[in-house]
Amino acid sequence: MDKPKKIIIIGAGISGLTSGIYGQKNGFVTEIFEKNPLPGGLCFTWYRKGYPIDGCIHWLTGTKEGTELNQMWKDVDAFDKEDIIKDDNFGTIEVLNQKITLWCDLNKLEEDLIKISPQDKRQIKHLTKLIIKIQNMKLPLDMPTSIMSIWRLMDVGIKLTPSLFSYLNTTKLTCEQYAKRFKSPVIKYILTQIVPGHNNLYSTLFAYGTACVGNGGVVKGGSNYIIKRMVEKYRLEGGVIHYNSEVKRLFIENGVCKGIELSDGTIHKADYVISALDSAYTLTSLLEGKYRDKEIEKRLAETKKYPLPSCVYTTFVVDYNAYKELGLTTTYQFQCEPFKAGASSFSLIKMRDYSYDPMFVKDGKLVMNVMTHQDDEDFLYWKKLKEDPTEYSIRKQIVADEIKQRIIEKFPSLKDKIELLDVATPVTYERYCNAYHGAYMPFAFTNKASLLMHNGKIKGVKNLFISGQWTFMPGGIPFALSSGKFSIQRILKQEKRHYRITKKQYQKYAK
Ligand SMILES: Cc1cc2nc3c(=O)[nH]c(=O)nc-3n(C[C@H](O)[C@H](O)[C@H](O)COP(=O)(O)OP(=O)(O)OC[C@H]3O[C@@H](n4cnc5c(N)ncnc54)[C@H](O)[C@@H]3O)c2cc1C
Description:
The protein has helices at about 15-25, 70-75, 105-115, 120-135, 150-170, 175-180, 185-195, 200-210, 220-235, 280-285, 295-300, 320-325, 375-385, 390-410, 425-435, 475-495, 505-510; strands spanning about 5-10, 30-35, 45-50, 50-55, 60, 85, 90-95, 100-105, 215-220, 240, 245-255, 255-260, 265-270, 270-275, 310-320, 330-340, 345-355, 360, 365-375, 420-425, 465. With about 500 residues, the chain is an alpha+beta fold. The protein has three domains: about 5-80 and about 220-305 and about 450-510, 3-Layer(bba) Sandwich (FAD/NAD(P)-binding domain); about 85-215, no CATH class; about 310-440, no CATH class. The strands form five sheets. Strands 7, 8, 15, 16, 17, 18, 19 and 20 form an eight-stranded mixed sheet that branches. Strands 10-2-1-14-21 form a five-stranded parallel sheet, covered by helices on one side. A three-stranded antiparallel sheet has the order 5-9-6. β18 (about 360) and β19 form a beta hairpin. α1 (about 15-25) runs parallel beside α16 (about 475-495), α3 runs antiparallel to α4 (about 120-135) and α4 packs across α8 (about 200-210). The two termini are about 15 Å apart. Flavin-adenine dinucleotide (FAD) binds next to α1, β15, α15 and α16.
């Protein structure tokens, strides 16, 4: 048997860790280089005043047993079935003195909406049918289509056909356009607020639909729990992570990627390199702008067609009893007097209560978060402001104060019972993960956008693969997971290998 080939993986986010685990399982010798002192990337929990701030998982797709995604979560040992908490709703939106809860039970949603607007009955029934149809659409997430056999491709095609018409229709519609089909101003409003940002109707209903079919939830222990388990799985499979190891550039000789150079000048060689981080950063910094990629570049250039979502992430602690007495659902949105965050103005607050997990409750106080959507222009605003660190801190404090004030105006019983813990801005995500424009998800799937399923290769560089949420719209941790697996499958294809060596054989060669 040949000596196992070596793969260097850049980034210990979900995608990099996934490549590491599948790489080890398939007999490669892998090493991950991560710039931060801790793993996780955007999927991260940090602490303020002893309270955890979960910076990622609001919604984890792939919790349903028997699905491809769930199998992949199992392969990387991200969680056990018992760790998943499922809610009976996808949040509540309060508008015009009405509270609409997005129930996972669509019959219940239908009943509530018809009560509000009987004249919209036909359209409401159309909406719930559409959600089911979209959910029945089985996207292949376990393997890139470019390496599927003809039989697998045919199977995928057959499974996609019944939902294809709904898919094509809903991807070309904004939520605002669809909302116009309803008469009730309440329903019109909620349809535009289910998911923040500029996603098309398909993405919005897909996200809500995962809750309705029981394929989504949250995980006990939050983002760090998943990451800790994946790191342990990687270690048990024989992988090695180097922290505080920032990669400065890719080492390329005669069009072949042969390794990496770290910021301290050391060079590490490998047979393959997987860059599991922001693709724009890979192109401009790691490849020093010497290689082009049309798929990524055209999206970066057209910010209106492909806006990059980010957020101001404001976290508070509130008195547990006072908050629970309000009787709100886990996610609760209400309208308010306008306030400014970044370059944009908002008249909506979306609160999230973490009391479903005891880890977020301490000394009678509960962690509560408000996520305010940001776009490219907001990022540029914060970036400019950051040049003056004092001004930047003041502005963050102002945004937090304004949010707090509106929460108290809405819920006066919380006065003197709510305290700021932390504010993260798009610049935080850029600093921490090299995320282009501070984006926490890749290009939004707008009604004008075309779906990105990158082939993972950069033209002109052999043995380099890119992965991560930036290669696979609409993004989020499930797509980071899939793309991490895809990189290994692509390498296996190049190696003309489809087997798995035993652990004993691996250990012999890895020494
Ligand atoms: C506030 C917030 C809420 C979110 N909510 C959800 C949610 O509810 N559900 C969901 O599915 N997704 C959610 N996401 C998105 C999710 O976190 C990301 O899609 C996912 O974590 C991306 O993983 P990744 O591995 O592709 O990239 P990243 O997490 O960005 O990983 C890249 C890694 O590479 C490292 N790196 C960068 N540059 C270098 C370098 N030069 N050298 C070495 N290492 C480097 C980074 O430090 C990082 O660790 C949320 C994100 C945020 C910020």
